[in-house]
Amino acid sequence: MKTPKGLQDLIDEGVIDQVLRPLKSGKEASVYVVRSGEDIRCAKVYKDMAQRSFQARVQYQEGRKVRGSRQMRAMGKATKFGRKEAEAAWKNAEVDALYQLTAAGVRVPKPYGYFSGVLVMELVTDAEGYSAPRLGEVELSADTAREYHRFLMQQVARMLCVGLIHGDLSEYNVLVGPDGPVIIDLPQAVSASGNNNARTMLRRDVGNISISLSRFAPELLDTHYGEEMWALYELGELHPDSELTGHFEFDETIADVDSVMQSIIDAREEAIIRQQGREAAAQED
Prior knowledge:
The protein has about 280 residues and is an alpha+beta fold. It has a domain at about 135-285: Transferase(Phosphotransferase) domain 1 (Transferase(Phosphotransferase), domain 1). The protein is about 40% helix and about 15% strand. It has 8 helices and 9 strands. The chain has helices at about 10, 55-60, 70-75, 80-105, 140-160, 200-215, 225-235, 255-285; strands spanning about 20-25, 30-35, 40-45, 110-115, 120, 165, 175, 180-185, 190. Helix 5 packs antiparallel against helix 6. The longest helix has 28 residues, at about 255-285. The protein is globular, with a radius of gyration of 19 Å. The relative contact order is 0.12.
């Protein structure tokens, strides 16, 4: 196939040897299957900010570290330089998160490097070696759904232990490999301690997964892992191997449980709309 724009430099520099085929294309990035020596990997080419449609980017960037006060001021004022810095921070966030989460034992694609705006990483496949399906594309038994749910709750907790929240977790960015779920798409990962929306995003991430897997195990809708994790995190008692139960006692004087569930439902609808946009963009390509 014709080498896509953005990947020729990697071929010239010997980072990859060949572009085999497109894997997926969305409004934030395009992903290609590539060969590097004898290894088959994938390369994620980020699109320019003007081409991307991911909304409310500011709330995700809150709390992220930037190089200095000049960069921070420029990003806040949205100057040309500031937009360039924000773009770089957006792309670097996924790279940094993948390395950090891999080291923490979270099941994400293994990163192999970031070159000229392109992230080269592990290609997640199924048992036959084909590209792994999304969680929302597979049919599961009730027992397997419960197993995947327990595993993903553990992964979310491990992420929180290193101070990160996915921020956009749903059935659309979890792949199912031979060994179970793999979490992908992390450019919007947020700081748990530095972002005022962190608790809401954590609760939404957990709720999205619970809603998705409740198709096969309806009782998962009655669990409250997000609230349990956050309470332990605030107390400094959340650990990578913490035994989570999904039970949480709400203080009805300060918590509106109905609004919590509604925010989860709203988030799921937003995720569906974003996915429809990605699929429409892929068809246009």
